[in-house]
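Second opinion, please. Please look over this fold, written as tokens:

===
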Amino acid sequence: MGDDAYDEPLFFQVMQYAARADRDVVGMVSGDPDWEPPQALRDGLREYADADSDQFQYPPSEGLRELRAEIAERRNVDPARVVVTNGAGEANYLTMARAMERGSGSEFLLTDPVYPYYPGKATMLGGEATKVPVLESGDPDVAAMREAASPETAAILVNTPNNPTGAVYDRETVEALHDVAAENDALLLVDEVYDHFDFSGDFESALTLDSDRVLVTSGYSKSMAITGFRVGYAVFPEELVPEAKTRHMLVNVATNRPGQVAVLRALRETSPDYYEGTRDMLRERIGSFTDALDAAGAAYTSPRGAFYVLARFEDFPGTLSNVETLIDEAGVAGMPGEAFGDAYADWIRFALVTPRADEAASRLADYFA
């Protein structure tokens, strides 16, 4: 599958195929959490519904002041560095645009496998995407990244905890990637949207490097189970903020106000127990799902973070055609490995964000038995 395949990611194509199937299908394609959001988030929405009408108007383009201050305190940065965005997706777009606008190259170094929207954004911005295969552990191959980097490299873009491998990069790895970026006058862009889903204890934000080459993105779609709210943010070095705010304003005007109000209340009032409870539930799902993959004779990744499992079935590569066959004949919908690059093209990715994960695992075990 060539780069053109990233022009229109396959997520919706697979979901639409599953929706048209003539049988019951367990959907494990997209990372839409199935668990409850924090109660405080619902409370914030109810409170907002009764607010004065002036609170229904445009918010500050860069985000509500109180929300930016809350994010900044949690991230130990100045609020002036925070831009609230329409999900982590826009945050990534803004950071990639800033990398291009510096005039120091137009190439993005990505891992292989990679979340498909990254190379899609690179192409949309007029840049090039170079994918570097990861190590067997799922961690970036820093030596290979260093070899691939050049004066044409605008940024190294990574995601930790990682979708789709489940790898969690330790501080030494992130610091080494930063050094590669610095050696080539490039930026290091780190998408940390799965930061609440670290099962290893090894995750440490790239912001702790305290470098003017580090840009970090995140959001609340996954951690609060609110993918439809589209509230994310980016943390920029101060000198890169003005142009990012301008682009955000020209493209979106602002981020939705009700979502920001609700997220702010949830941040202030939600106990750490909420997030730990979610991690415990996912640990159980991952364990039972991979047990069933053992029964199916599959190879698989054991995620140290996020909530995806990559599986490889003998003589059944992860092509779109085979994914459609699984939908039709096993009643399970996953994502073809070829959608994420070449390194795991023989694998299929399953998102463990359904209460029917055990049922899906049983179906796969029966199908491949």
